[in-house]
Amino acid sequence: MHWLTQLFLLAFVSSALAQWWLSVRQTRYVNAHRDRVPGPFAESISAGDHRKAADYTQARERVGRIHLIVDGAVLLFFTLGGGITLADALWQRAHLGEPWHGTAVILSIIFAQSLLGLPLSLYQTFRIEARFGFNRTTPKLFVVDLLKQLVLGLALGAPLLALVLFLMSSAGEQWWVYAWAALNAFMIVIQWAYPAFIAPWFNKFTPLADSTLQERIAALLQRCGFKAQGVFVVNGSLRSSHGNAYFTGFGKTKRVVFFDTLLERLNAAEIEGVLAHELGHYRRHHIRSRLIVSMIMSFLGFALLGFLSTWPEFYRALGVATPAPHAALLLFMLALGPFTFWLTPIGAWWSRRHEFEADEFAAEHANAAELSTALTKLYRDNATTLTPDELHSAFYDSHPTALVRIAHLQRLGART
Questions:
Q1: Nearest Cα residue to 370 out of 274, 263, 280, 282
Q2: How confident is the model over 39-61, as a mean pLDDT?
Q3: How many CB atoms lie within 10 A of CB 5?
Q4: Do the Cβ atoms of 287 and 188 come closer than 8 Å?
Q5: pLDDT greater than 70 at residue 253
Q6: Contact at 8 Å (CB) between 355 and 405?
Q7: 222: exposed, middle or buried (Cβ count in 10 Å: 0-12, 13-18, 19+)
Q8: What pTM did the predictor assign?
C-alpha cells in the first residue's frame, strides 16, 4: 500500500473517530444536565424549555453521527473505491470535449453526493425540526428549493469549473495562480450579487415597515458609522421558526436584514442590541480579515493542488488510474476534508474571539443588558443548549457558550 494511501486512511479514520467521540461526549453531557437549568438562566428559561433544548441537541447529534457514516462511505467509494474512474467511464460515452467532460464528471459526483444525503436532509427537516416545532417548510417548498439550488449550481458552478479545468490544461505550470485569481473574483462578484439577485429568488425581502424602529436603527447606524442601502425584513418564517439578523453585500448592495421571526420575539431595544452586535463585526473588520484569510488559505490550497496534479502517484494512491485535470481537482476536494478537520478548533476559537469583540462593540453603542436579554430569548426559542460539553464546544462552536457569553455581557454592562 502506497504511503499516501496509508496517510489518507489514517487522516480519515482518526478524524471520523474524533467526530464520533466528540458527538457522544456532547450527547452524554447534555443529557446529564438535562433536568437542571443553570443558575443565571433560572428565572428566564423554564425547566421545560431547558429539557427541550437538551432533547433537540441530542436528536441532532444522533442524525449527525448517521451523516458521518454516510459521508465516510461516500468518500471512500469515490476515492479508493474507484467511483471517480466509474463516473469518468460513464461520461466517456457522451464524447464530450474538454473541459466539458471534466465538468460533467465533477458535477455528476457532486450531484450524487447530494442525492445520497437527501434522505437524511428530509428526516432532519420533516422529523427532527417538525418534532420540536421549528419546521414550516412544506414538501412542495422543499422540492422547489432543491430545484432552484440545482439550477443555480449549474448556472454558476458549471462555467466556473469549466474555466478552472481549462486553465489547468492550457495555462502552463502557473495555472493555479490564474485559477486562484478567477475563483476569488467569482466569490467577490457573488458576495456583491447575493443580496440583490440571488437571495430574493428564495425569499421575499421587504423594507422595514415599523417607522419608530426604523428611526432607532437609522440612529444606531449613524452612531456606528455604517451606511446601508436599506433595512429589510426577510420571510424566514416561510421555512423555519428560528430567528436571526445579519448584514450582507457591499457597496450599493449592502443591506441590513432581519428575520420576521426575530422581530416577533424581541422589543426595539433588544433588536438594537442584536444589530449593534452584527455591526460590530463590520466595524471591527471581521469580514475583511476573514476574507483575507480565506484568500490566503485558498492560495495555499491551489499551490498544493498545482504540485499534486503533476505527481502521478497522487492519482494512483487515491484510486484513479489515469491522471487528468478533473480527477486531480476531484481527489483534492474529496480528500482534503479529513486533513483540514484538525484545523477546526482554530477556526472556532478565532470566530468566538470575534463574537466577544462584536459584543464589546454592541455594549459601547447600544445596551449590553438588552443584548443579553435578546440572546437569552433566542437561546430559549431556538432550543440552544445551555450546557454543552466543554471539549465539543471548544472544537466546534463558532459562538461562546451561553453561560460564558452572558457573563461577559454582564461584565461589559457593569463598566458602562
A1: 274
A2: 95
A3: 16
A4: no
A5: no
A6: yes
A7: exposed
A8: 0.92
